[in-house]
């Protein structure tokens, strides 16, 4: 099965909107060494989406945890429509095929609990007592939302923080869309303490979060089981402004972070069984040496984002399958002094997709039951956060401020086919070689830590990664 050299597998535009499909063209090459009899000769293309969720408890059956749907299916018959057996003499034969994919199908994806796959197959069915001949290959389908000539850095969005605004005024500015093949993200963070005489910014953690939501449905598209995976494919970075020499809490702080995307980051996806979204998550830890015990916390609100799957009615039905979203961990300050006087103290994690399984925030709760970890409804999170906390008698008071900047990750229309040197990390938008990144990028390690001390030590690990695949840094 040979695809046409001009085939790119690009779906342009947003699904269910003004978009363009793509055409899969090529030839099925048949090499015949001696005469063979053929009853039927078929070439077909099938697109399939499958989700497998493991439910807990005796009430969950295997049928409810697995769902498979056909996205596209079409076949071409070259021989056998008339019911007669034909004979192919020795030689080489080429049978051209053409399949038109509609614009609303999702792009190819493979995750921990499901996949979207497009497979091209050919089969020659022979008479009785003769072996059939089959061949197959997967076809990669991508969705491109913007032309490669568009400069992504010009499309930026600024979001204001809404949590604990009586203690900290903060905002973040970042691009709204970028490419997964070498896209450059410039994240700018501005912070202003409200009581600088007793407050300081202890830590700032930033990361790219990839949220994958899986679900199985019934005949009416109602959710039966659901599961949410929060991944950090580029790791996370933590720095400590209060440990920097010359730190002045009364001044307005301005910090910048850079992220260079690589093919380890998947593109956004939205289908009936799977949804994949991205966001830049910033965690700011504010330290207050003299907290005001009579001051009311007025900023516990969390705004709904586009990462929520269901509507309000569906979310009420699926509340029993829900749990809050997780955010990047907050590392404790490093005791070592800063070596560079003009840069904040920095700690990087290893580029692991399993970081979210190591760390957890104190605001996470155990409110989910069997059936999955779907995003919790907003009122449930509010009620949990408003529960009275135990007053601390020793040590400073710590307050966590979180801000999420939505980010759309799309695929490039054109990528380099040969191995080239990677571009400059700071100021070039062109992607590194796709195949070079796949060959040189190490697999994400999986940590299994049992003690808190080991977990805390894992946050300071900085594993060496090939220089051809840059890491996110501040």
UniProtKB/TrEMBL annotation:
Q: Which InterPro entries match?
A: Arrestin-like_C, Arrestin-like_N, Arrestin_domain-protein, Ig_E-set
One Gene Ontology cellular component term attached to this UniProt record is:
cytoplasm
Q: Basic residues composition bias: which ranges?
A: 382-392
**Could you provide one GO biological process annotation from this protein's UniProt record?**
protein transport
Acidic residues bias spans: 294-311
Top-rank taxon, per record: Eukaryota
Composition-biased stretches (Low complexity): 332-349
Stretches with biased composition (Basic and acidic residues):
312-321
Which residue numbers delimit the Arrestin-like N-terminal domain?
21-138
The record ties this protein, via PANTHER family, to: ARRESTIN DOMAIN CONTAINING PROTEIN (PTHR11188), FI21816P1 (PTHR11188:SF17)
Q: What is this protein called?
A: Arrestin domain-containing protein 3
- Species name for this entry? Rhizopus stolonifer
